[in-house]
Amino acid sequence: MKITVAGLGPGGIEYLLPIVKTALHQADVVIGYSYYFQFAEPFLSEGAELIEMPLGKEEARAAIAIEKALEDKQVVVIGSGDASIYSMAAIVYEMVAKQGLDNLELETLPGISAFLAAGSKLGAPLGHDFCCISLSDLMTPWNVIEKRIKAAAMGDFVTSFYNPKSKKRHWQLAYCQRIFLEERSADTPVAIVRQVTRPDEHIQITTLGNFNPDDVDMFCLVMFGNSQTFQFKNHLVTPRGYLNRKPKTGKEIQQESFRIVTDHIQHLPNTTAEKWAMTRLIHTTGILDDHQYFSASENALERWNDYLQKGGTIITDVTMVKAGITKAFSKKYENQIHCYLNEPAALALADKEGLTRTQAGIRIASEQHPNALFVVGNAPTALIELIDQLREKETFKPVGIIGTPVGFVNVIESKEQLLQTTKTDWVTVEGNRGGSNVAAAIVNAAFTLEEANQFL
């Protein structure tokens, strides 16, 4: 006692697998939708009993298959494409299982599904992750189908739509198009493949934006490409990634990180220089939304780029900021970077005046390098000292101040004073955020503004 569920492929006789041809020839009983018998007929034996049934009688086909098998007949249930994809295998197995017919042998023979045949005709659209969705709501509630459509669009799957349209289902494809356009470019390739492998096969390639659901009927399979799919001649190609491998070297990883960040902030109204500084900032903190805390005076970064590439001097409040400034940049442009935190003179001044060491170091530096770029990444007292020097000394004219002290005591107050200054260029990260690594990242951004053109 055996039921074989066999897929006849998409229709072309050359697409019918040999194992299925053999099963058809050996069958005592063949059961299926009337339309499909034209594809199976050349391989049937003369004495076989043929039971043709109309569309929509899937349960009845499974029931009679079980009945004939229990009479010890070799039964083959046919379906188009692959027997286990939107075909008869599921209902046959389900009904046998529910009836507890443990002695009834079941077998499924594969066939070439329509989406696979369409894929071969198109060339290589299925080169990466893909899915199939049936738009028929006869077996599946529409709200479930809708969830799957949205998931496929968001997941960037190449998506093949089965049962795309009928007389009563005429609006669903346009809905799919609208959902996918929310997630993908209007230039995304779309293929309409009608009667694939059959004599009246017709293939139309268009785009998601130009796709017209009225070009589709019930004999079509519709395939939406993913964000990487492209058209080459009459082919669709979805890259697997062989020519765009994951970054491995440190430089490649950094460049890919910059690309991810710049994609996230591309829409912002800031200048390219400011967005490049934000990119370096976010790359350091790992928090994509940190751009909202970035503030800068107009054209500060552009002026610092010129200053630094001409060998300008940098003063830092702590050694960690100095360590974070890329040595390759300072070596290339012969910049001097000074930190007076641990200098004997700063220690003596701090002890004498009751100052913090960073504050004393900045006071000494402002006298020795009044035109330098000052970078504060740790101590709010150092930033407050700089603002006081700006207010009190006409000889103190720094090219700019990067003020990103971090913490909870005097941090916000020191940054607010920097935000209000008009005597020099400045950059800060508002609120309690900041740190030596952030300050160094902004300096590195100023060194490399020309690199921004690769990403922004």
Please provide a written account of the structure.
The chain is α/β, with parallel strands linked by helices and 456 residues long. It has three domains: 2-112, 3-Layer(aba) Sandwich (Cobalt-precorrin-4 Transmethylase, domain 1); 115-237, Methyltransferase, Cobalt-precorrin-4 Transmethylase, Domain 2; 250-454, Cobalamin biosynthesis CobH/CbiC, precorrin-8X methylmutase (Rossmann fold, 3-Layer(aba) Sandwich), CATH 3.40.50.10230. 39% of the residues lie in helices and 18% in strands. The protein has a six-stranded mixed beta sheet, with helices on both faces. Helix 15 (380-392) runs parallel beside helix 16 (411-420). The longest helix is centred in the middle third of the chain and has 16 residues, at 250-265. The radius of gyration is 35 Å and the shape is rod-shaped. It starts with a strand and ends in a 9-residue tail after the last helix.
Architecture blueprint of SSEs:
Elements: E1 2-7, H1 18-26, E2 29-33, H2 37-40, E3 49-53, H3 58-70, E4 74-79, H4 89-98, E5 105-109, H5 114-122, E6 123-124, E7 130-134, H6 142-154, E8 158-162, H7 172-181, E9 189-194, E10 202-207, E11 220-224, E12 230-232, E13 235-237, H8 250-265, H9 272-285, E14 294-296, H10 300-309, E15 314-316, H11 319-324, H12 327-333, E16 337-338, H13 344-353, H14 357-368, E17 373-376, H15 380-392, E18 400-403, H16 411-420, E19 425-429, H17 436-447
Spans of at least 5 consecutive residues with low confidence: none
Q: Kindly name the structural category.
A: alpha/beta
Annotated CATH homologous superfamily of the largest domain: Cobalamin biosynthesis CobH/CbiC, precorrin-8X methylmutase
What CATH architecture of the largest domain do you see?
3-Layer(aba) Sandwich
Radius of gyration of CA atoms, rounded to a whole number: 35 Å
Number of strands: 19
Q: Tell me the major beta sheet.
A: 6 strands, mixed
Compute the average pLDDT.
Answer: 96
Percentage of residues assigned to helices: 25-40%
The CATH C-level name of the largest domain is: Alpha Beta
- Strand content bin: 15-25%
The side-by-side strand order for the widest beta sheet comes to 14-19-18-17-15-16
CATH fold name of the largest domain, please? Rossmann fold
Shape: rod-shaped
Please give the count of helices: 17
Gap between N and C termini, in Å? Answer: 68 Å
- For the record, the count of structural domains works out to 3
